[in-house]
Design brief:
Elements: H1 2-12, E1 26-35, E2 40-49, E3 55-64, H2 74-87, E4 95-98, H3 111-119, E5 123-127, E6 147-152, E7 155-161, E8 170-176, H4 180-189, H5 198-213, E9 227-229, H6 239-243
Parallel strand pairs: 1-4, 4-5
Antiparallel strand pairs: 1-2, 2-3, 3-9, 5-8, 6-7, 7-8
Helix pairs in contact: 2-3
Length: 244
């Protein structure tokens, strides 16, 4: 655990928390789930045209769990299987929306930040729950787009964001190569009436299907998974190339 924490501290200094985005034409949603009893992790990466959000490609991966569940260090548990799914995409995304935090964990280096840095792509954390910090949610408006700053140790690490009128908010934080203001704007543009933005909402559903389909099956193949394309689009890069 000490080594993982040291890696986080070292990599955190390399984060870019201002806008350094290419023109966003393809946005990807990624998410992960586990089956502790089977010792497996499941991930999905879905690529969408932006801003229409037409599905372009879908890829999944299954891998053995090799890192324990430690809050604040989940990127070491979830990152490898998510990278395996991303590597199967035939479309290279301009932006990643991640089902987890960016700079909002205790050490300021969550899943969205870790993935964005490894992939050298802009990334945004879209979490369902708060890990750290406080926000004046009593003054959070009821209309879509209402937001309150999420503060931790004297700095703003994200926002509590209402994505639909009267709905429960989500916790948005920049991951890498994107400012907080732009992160909020892009997340709202990816929302279609549900609590979560469509890329992460549909990635979450794809992971659920993958996990349900794996019930009762043994898997020791870190490359297990599949790819489904909604359109033939040339790839603009590869996840493996970014990581290496």
């Amino acid at each position: 655990m000490a080594e993982a924490s040291a890696i986080q501290r070292r990599l955190r200094s390399r984060l870019v928390l201002v806008d350094a985005l290419p023109p966003v034409r393809v946005v990807a949603g990624v998410d992960c789930a586990y089956d502790p009893a089977a010792g497996l992790a499941f991930a999905a990466a879905l690529a969408f045209a932006f801003p229409s959000l037409a599905l372009l490609d879908e890829a999944t991966a299954t891998a053995p769990l090799t890192f324990p569940y430690v809050p604040g260090l989940l990127s070491f548990r979830e990152g490898p299987v998510i990278l395996a799914a991303v590597d199967r995409l035939t479309v290279w995304p301009d932006l990643f929306l991640v089902g987890g935090p960016g700079i909002a964990p205790p050490r300021g280096f969550g899943l969205a930040s870790h993935l964005g840095l490894l992939l050298d792509r802009p990334s945004i954390g879209c979490a369902k729950s708060r890990l750290v910090g406080a926000a004046d949610t009593a003054r959070l408006g009821r209309r879509r787009g209402a937001r309150r700053a999420l503060r931790f140790e004297g700095r703003t690490v994200g926002v509590v964001l209402r994505t639909r009128d009267g709905g429960r908010p989500i916790f948005v934080s920049p991951g890498h190569r994107v400012s907080l203001a732009t992160a909020v704007r892009l997340v709202l543009r990816c929302c279609r009436g549900a609590r979560l933005p469509e890329p992460t909402r549909l990635a979450d559903r794809a992971v659920g299907r993958l996990k349900a389909g794996a019930g009762g099956r043994e898997s020791g193949d870190a490359g297990g998974g599949e790819r489904q394309s909604g359109a033939s689009v040339p790839a603009g890069g590869s996840a493996s190339g970014a990581v290496r």
